[in-house]
Amino acid sequence: MQFIxxxxxxxxxxxxxxxxxxxxxxxxRIVYLTYTAFYMLTAYFFYVLCTLIxxxxxxxxxxxxxxxxxxxxxxxxxxxxxxxxxxxxVILVSIALAFFFEEGIRSIFGSLFRRVPPFISxxxxxxxxxxxxxxxxxxxxxxxxxxxxWLFLSKSKIGLAIRATSQDREIVSLMGIxxxxxxxxxxxxxxxxxxxxxxxxxxxxxxxxxxxxxxIAMVLAIVVLGGLGSLxxxxxxxxxxxxxxxxxxxxxxxGTFVKGAVALLVxxxxxxxxxxxxxxxNFEEERL
Amino acid sequence: xxYIRILYKIFELDILAIPGRDMALVGxxxxxxxxxxxxxxxxxxxxxxxxxxxxxxxxxxxxxxxGQLNLGHGAFFGIGAYVSAVLSSRLGLPVSVTIPLGAxxxxxxxxxxxxxxxxxxxPYLAIVTLAVPPILKGIVFVFPELTGxxxxxxxxxxxxxxxxxxxxxxxxxxxISVSIMWKLTDTKSRILRTGIIFxxxxxxxxxxxxxxxxxxxxxxxxxxxxxxxxxxxxxLYAHTMKVVGTSTLDFxxxxxxxxxxxxGGAGTIYGSVVGTYILYFFSSQLLIYVxxxxxxxxxxxxxxxxxxxxxxxxxxxxGKFEISCPRCKIANSAVRKFCRICDAPLH
Amino acid sequence: MxxxxxxxxxxxWVFSLITIGLTGEAKSQTGKSIKIxxxxxxxxxxxxxxWRGAEMASDEINKAGGVRVAGVKKPxxxxxxxxxxxxxxxxxxxxxxxxxxxxxxxFLIGMRRSEAALAMQEIVMKYKKVLIGVGALHPxxxxxxxxxxxxxxxxxxxxxxxxxxxxxxxxxxEDVSKRVREELALEKAKLAILAEKIIWAxxxxxxxxxNAARIGFEVVGVWRPSxxxxxxxxxxxxxxxxxxHVIFQVASGPMGxxxxxxxxxxxxxxxxxxxxxxxxxxxxxxxxxxxxxYTTAMTSFLRVKITDKTIPFWDAYVKRYNDxxxxxxxxxxAIYVLKEGIERAGTIDSDAxxxxxxxxxxxxxxGRIKFYAxxxxxxxxxxxxxxxxxxxxxxxxxxxxxxxxxxxxxxxVTYEGSEGYKIPPWVVxxxxxxx
Lengths: 288, 347, 435
Hints:
The structure holds three protein chains of three kinds. By secondary structure, chain A is mainly alpha-helical. Helices cover 71% and strands 3% of the residues of chain A. Chain A has one domain. Chain A is built from eleven helices and two strands. Chain A has a two-stranded antiparallel ribbon with strand order 1-2. In chain A, β1 and β2 (129-132) form a beta hairpin. In chain A, α2 runs parallel beside α4 (87-109). The N and C termini of chain A lie far apart (43 Å). A two-stranded antiparallel ribbon of chain B has the order 1-2. In chain B, α4 (74-90) packs antiparallel against α5 (95-117), α4 packs across α11 and α9 (194-203) packs across α11. The longest helix of chain B is centred in the middle third of the chain and has 27 residues, at 215-241. Chain B starts with a helix and ends in a 14-residue tail after the last strand. Chain C folds into two domains: 33-159 and 310-369, Rossmann fold, CATH 3.40.50; 164-299 and 401-432, Rossmann fold (3-Layer(aba) Sandwich). In chain C, α2 crosses α13 (331-345), α7 packs parallel to α8 (201-211) and α13 crosses α14 (350-358). Chain C has helices at residues 2-24, 45-63, 89-101, 114-126, 140-147, 149-152, 162-184, 201-211, 233-242, 255-265, 282-287, 310-321, 331-345, 350-358, 425-434; strands spanning 34-40, 67-69, 72-74, 76-82, 107-110, 130-133, 155-157, 189-195, 217-223, 246-251, 271-276, 296-299, 361-363, 368-370, 392-396, 402-406, 408-410, 413-414. Chain C is an alpha/beta fold. The longest helix of chain C is centred in the N-terminal third of the chain and has 23 residues, at 2-24. The chains are: A mainly alpha, B mainly alpha, C alpha/beta. Chain A binds chain B through residues 31, 79, 82-83, 87-89, 91-93, 95-97, 99-100, 103-104, 106-107, 213, 217, 220-221, 224, 228, 255, 257-258, 260-262, 264-265, 267-268, 271-272, 275, 285-288, and chain B through 69, 71, 115-116, 119-124, 126-128, 130-132, 134-135, 137-139, 141-142, 205-206, 251-252, 255, 258-259, 262, 292-293, 295-296, 298-300, 302-303, 306-307, 310.
């Protein structure tokens, strides 16, 4: 029972991050590894505004989301946009940027673990399992984000443009959609998702400069498993890998330290057997 | 006697005439001589590590030359280090045996990574390689009696008791390894065709296939050679540090060869060597003077380099001193007015 | 052509000799002060405690004039050496080497992470400099002294090695078992073990498992998360499901903070005891948001009367740094021990100082410091036991105050000011209700 509830909560949290990442990859064709670094930055801004300066928690959260997203967009504009065509170079730059942020935060705040206050404290007892209220709130918010995004993508015009760009970039330009603008919007949306999720989830975990590394490994595994370019795939894969992570903890307690490695192993096996993942669209130039 | 004259002629034409190679020659002579000058032992040690890491970076660059981006190159290095360490400490084998066996470990990992890698390209390949070091790390933790867990293996014998000998040994290994790797990627060579084939695979694999090249064989070769030299670097590292831990399998460690190679000039083996020496030296100097913000400065440099000078420093310098002849495409010193081979005007 | 080449080569060599020569001799020996380098990962909590303890000692000594070396009083010059050992062993090794060859330190103290410490020890021994270890407790640092005395004799460990520290945990667990069974009226209590996947935890876990029945426990499960873990809610829920009364933790990394925070937030009905290296500072209290109350940890000293010097030091430290000292502030004792060794030897020559250090019998803030002799299993390690160095176990109380709960009647040792272990009230409530 514990395993099921954990799995759902963790899966939803991963799903939001994975969908944001997948959006950026699908629409802008960028493997934006700096993604979770923004997640980390948001947590730190939240910490500074709330704990050090003492702002009201909601205001602090809102401000940190806005600031991080702005930094994300600025970084995209300054660094990534000009090299958008060369995928491998983009990967390199995004890694370097992520480390730049990590080391920058580390030199300012040191490597100590910090904490941010939860929006709702306390816990509930659900079906015999103790769950933090903050976790339930995070679950709710994440779910709302996912549904909101789904509605946005399917109903609005921009959403349609994003979906079109994910499918075929060249034709999209012929149809009169500015592929560059769509990419920018997709990046903003993706980072926004990540930052909101960060604010919700940071009170449960601990804030430290290297906190962006385990999520990105998971997100990569999820996105690959689900199939690149497919948001639905990312959603489902997030739950699959979330559950598998909880399974390791529940049924193999001696092995909890390998839960990250197990996810990556799953990813490699999937890539070996079916590189386009579960629902991925098969692009000619991506594989042989 | 005439052989010496022929050699000298080759030397004069192929090496001295090209400013880039002049500088490389000066660099090599400098490295050879520095070993016997009375410099601070800390600096000598830095140079030893620089030569080991140069092999590491060059092996990454070799793979990059074939168009495959390896984000988990630390795996080769780490395996080489761990295999050498385990063989040395648990079985007591001498250094001369453990290092080649470490390289063998690198080859095996290279072959294992090949399996999924051959079917993938671009970002997919990068992600798979990214996943390898954490998995290896997990394996290390599962067998702590063998691998020492998070403490690692310590008390390894050094390569030699004399730091000068160690320096020259590592330097020699570096020069030989880099020469081999450079020859393998030399597109103009008539004897070894691997250079031009790797280049073809990078540019357009499908066309290469249609031209009858067995791309699978060459990609496997690239992984094997890259793994071999990565493993050698790892083995050398184990016996110079005398301690091996999981730090070699960290993500950041796999990013270093990328940074060094790109800074120096990605895709050119000598570029990664140059980049490693400059950056590693620079970073250990920073360690002395501004340890807190060292990595921040470092990563900022990388980002700026990639954005504004993506061909790397060695290429930029070459661009300043060399010109390619418009007719016969041979490299010429930029101060010349006429090409040294075909006499065409250069400007 | 040839002339050009020869010219370039020679000029380059000369030029580089000059530059390197300059950088090499940048900081030269003055001989007017005694340079003691503090090897520590300065950005981490144990790191800056290593530095602060040393700083307090050297400030006191310098105020009194300095260290007397053969009739002349010389001041101590402390040099900060950031090893970054928590993140990179290579950095640590290079930093250690640089401190000797570039900064020209005379003595070295500190170190925190065993993996790096073993590597740094090699380098320092190569240069024959005295090294007093304070934070890294791996016993092999001392067994090496036994194996190759002439090479490793310059090393001393001023804290009990991790084997002895493991014993402390076991004594503490025995104490807890008595209290829990008494309070909850149980024959046997259920014990869950949550130990980081680190190598020094392995023998501790084994020891607990073997001794569990003897001290009144039934082990219901063993969880091994990674030391950098940021979420242990799954483990905690699984533990609760087993009905454990006591959770025994072994944590040396930040996972300890996560564990305490989530344990407190979820009000897990089991007491959280054991060793958590992070759990002895104000930072821990803040980072867990106060949920660290009732958690226990091991450290070298607390605000109790281990010796007459302990409480004054604690108060002075809190006043100066507005924080509680951790076990690595034992560098304070290390500096004093070193000072006495140098003064008795009358010189800073390493060999002479080593023979004097071996004769140390000094009462510091952590207890009475004597080193095991050459023929002991762990030579140059501090003597461990009642009347010497025992370490202590701390417990946070609701208000953020930190108290001592062990030794409390162990082998006749009770430090003035210590209290017994307190069980969190919600745990008592939960189990009493169940009856």
